[in-house]
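Take a sample.
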Amino acid sequence: MNKKTYRIIDRYSSSVANGMGCVCLAVTLSMIPSSAWASEMLASVQSESVGMSAERLQRVDEYFQRFIDNNQIAGAVTLIARRGKVVHHSAVGWKYREQNIPMSTDTIFSLASMTKPIVSTALMMLFEEGRFRLDDPISDWIPEYADHMVRESEGPRQRRVPEARPVTIRHVLTHTSGLSLNPNNSGLTEEELRWVSNNGESFETLGERVSRAALIPAAFHPGDYWQYGSSTDFVAVLVEKISGQSIDQFLQQRIFAPLGMHDTFYNVPRDKVDRVAALYSPTENGESELRRAPEYQQPSTYFPGVAGLKSTSSDYIRFAQMIANGGELDGIRLLGRMTVDLMISNHTGDKEVYIRGAGYGFGLGFGVLVDPTVSFDMLSPGSYGWGGAFGTLYWADPVEDLVGLMFIQLAGHGPLNIRQRFTNVVTQAVVDSVADQGATVRGYSFGQ
């Protein structure tokens, strides 16, 4: 890449040369567009005051700059907080490379599956109101799933049998439901396929699609396996059925507005489209090319639970810190501490959570690190979080009181392993000593 690239950084970071002929321009806080601070940012501090090295934190920008210089990604935004204070908030590269628009810290990203923890939190807020028990069947609110069937195979022929047990709310929160909205290879008749696919037309609402999908047999009996797929769409519909609001309305009124998350939505307003990052795809030669330019989309009434939200790093850190604080932020409490403890505990035993890799279990909306000795992530036992298909990632380490966010927009980013190495580049900047302390993850002692 011969273009000049830019990095926008906060006062507690510094500019470093990338070593490949590109110029990096450090910009002070006063030069960052005012819209970057429209959301209520967490307070920022000098990194050493919370046990992190400013010099070592520079490696975060250097790490992403290498991918930018190799044309593998266009740009990135990263945010790191410790003990509830931001120690690093940086933008490198390009928001829209083809138009020479530099990345900025107020850039809006497609969260993809990082929508799931937020939607799961919404349902758990209703749990706290005594609206249901975790092991209540979802058919209490979505009656089409009473007497639901499971697909079983015998030789070359498929057959459907009744579920061994009802699909429960716990099953859809933990991705152990076996449910799907995708009818492919499900053994449905042509008439059934037309019904569940709405004759190939778009569904107006998620609720309509979920109700029709009851004809699709589950991939396995509820609770038998962990399978990533449509489960959080059912979580979203449960929120709608129990609350009487659309998931969009519920999230805006009960989570985003109270937390000051003013740049998080399913439908990006027209006046904020210029802050949206372009989406890229990998090429055969290992570089990246434009897949989708930022443009205004007509508002939709179809609000998925599995994906769909758009947000900024400044907004998402407020949600992440609320969870890290045990359900409260800046005097606003959305969840009780014991509810958060339950959500970030492993509910899936030793079932393989293949999306996050070895060492992970799954809680109620969050992946949970059970054994860091076999994980790619250099985090403490009990760490939790989730990522998105376009390269976004969120994790929190409760032992170290550390939260990390990375935002890129690259479909098919997997071969780069960019997210797996991000945790290492962040945690190496922790330099204080806890040798005389007994590490604890919300009540689980790991010894002295």
About this structure: The first strand starts at residue 7 and ends at 9.
